[in-house]
Write a structure and sequence with these properties.
The chain is α/β, with parallel strands linked by helices and 349 residues long. The chain is 36% helix and 14% strand. It has two domains: 279 residues, Histone deacetylase domain (Arginase, Chain A); 52 residues, no CATH class. The strands form two sheets. It has an eight-stranded parallel β-sheet with strand order 4-1-5-10-9-6-7-8, with helices on both faces. The chain has a two-stranded antiparallel ribbon with strand order 2-3. Helix 1 crosses helix 12, helix 7 packs parallel to helix 8 and helix 11 packs parallel to helix 12.
């Protein structure tokens, strides 16, 4: 089993999240990487750990607006140069104004001159902060996804990218939900570029991957299917992720009630897998979040360790090559074992 990682993914240190105006401790912490890595290395002698290869921005620019890429690459340096860490004690880029339609009212938007005005240009929440290591970590995460996709395109049946920060909430021109660049979308596009006629993204994170769905919303060559906690019950991303969102026969959302456990979860995964089979995909990208686990503090779902292994087995039964891309999962003691069990299921073990 190929596991792709980069030590640069440790460089992103969010320090905090601003949630309903309150500064709370960050949940998407660097410690997630060694927790997963060590659990996988200790699981089997068959794990082959490889470093992410550096890639240029060609595939990334297919998935994301060049303006977003440039913003994430430079905004921290501009923020620091403007004195916000020293003069105001704000050591992370935090937006306070957003150019929404409610603000503009149909007027053309101009590029703000001040960096604290530009801070909200591509962000859509206040939780997803940018610091000195955010860009190199997010970019290394993309390289991990591209390296894993390249391995599968070269004949491997399964490759896992230990991506961090995660990516499935990042839209073409926006970041939020602790996500900056969409690793799963990059992997799916890379597989298309390698000759896969159709690619399916199966999202098993506890929260709907609004970014991935939005990126491929107008495309019939990439299927997006997700099982997640119902946003209508008050869960992120709140505005999207509902069952009635249909497009070109290539979208399926299965929202679950809070408290749902293995039976409902696996029924949803089965429904998505059946849709993938009908779609005729040539390869699968798995947005592998494990925050639907009963132990995880970030969702109300109650999936067990066995449920995650069965999730992997259901996807493996499609008989398609798989690129698994890490998304959520925040309970450090069980994070690594949950990922391990899912990957063992994906191997058909």
């Amino acid at each position: 089993m190929i596991v792709v990682w980069s030590s640069d993914t440790l460089r992103h240190v969010p320090e905090a999240e601003i949630w309903v105006g309150v500064r709370t401790p960050g949940t998407e912490v660097a410690e997630r990487v060694p927790a997963i890595r060590e659990a996988l290395l200790g699981a089997t002698s068959e794990v082959r750990l490889i470093e992410a290869m550096p890639y240029d921005d060609r595939v990334l620019r297919t998935v994301h607006d060049p303006g977003l890429i440039a913003h994430l690459r430079t905004v921290w340096e501009e923020w620091a140069a403007a004195g916000f860490p020293d003069d105001y004690g704000q050591d992370r880029v935090v937006p306070y104004v957003f150019p929404t339609e409610a603000m503009l009212g149909g007027l053309p938007a101009h590029r703000p001159a001040a960096v604290h005005g530009r801070a909200g240009l591509y962000a859509y929440d206040t939780m997803t902060l940018v610091g000195p290591g955010t860009w190199p970590a997010a970019r290394a995460s993309v390289d991990a996804a591209l390296t894993a996709a390249g391995s599968v395109a070269s004949g491997e049946r399964l490759a896992y990218a230990l991506c961090r920060p995660p990516g499935h909430h990042a839209t073409r021109a926006g970041y939020g939900g602790s996500c900056y660049l969409n690793n799963a979308a990059v992997a799916a596009q890379a597989l298309r570029d390698h000759g896969c006629g159709k690619v399916a993204v199966i999202d098993v994170d506890a929260h709907h991957g609004n970014g991935t769905q939005a990126i491929f919303w107008d495309r019939a060559d990439v299927f997006y299917g997700s099982v997640h906690v119902d946003p209508g019950a008050g869960w992120f991303p709140h505005y999207v992720g509902f069952a009635d969102e249909q497009r070109l026969g290539a979208t399926l959302n299965v929202p679950l009630a809070p408290g749902s456990a293995d039976d409902a979860w696996l029924a949803g995964v089965t429904q998505v897998c059946e849709a993938v089979s009908a779609f005729g995909a040539d390869a699968v990208v798995v947005s592998l979040g494990v925050d639907a686990a009963a132990t995880d503090p970030e969702s109300p779902l109650q999936v067990t360790m066995a449920g995650y292994r069965a999730t992997g087995a259901l996807i493996a039964a499609l008989g398609l090559p798989v690129v698994a891309v890490q998304e959520g999962g925040y309970h450090l003691p069980t994070l690594g074992p949950l990922v391990r069990e899912t990957l063992l299921g994906l191997r058909g073990r």
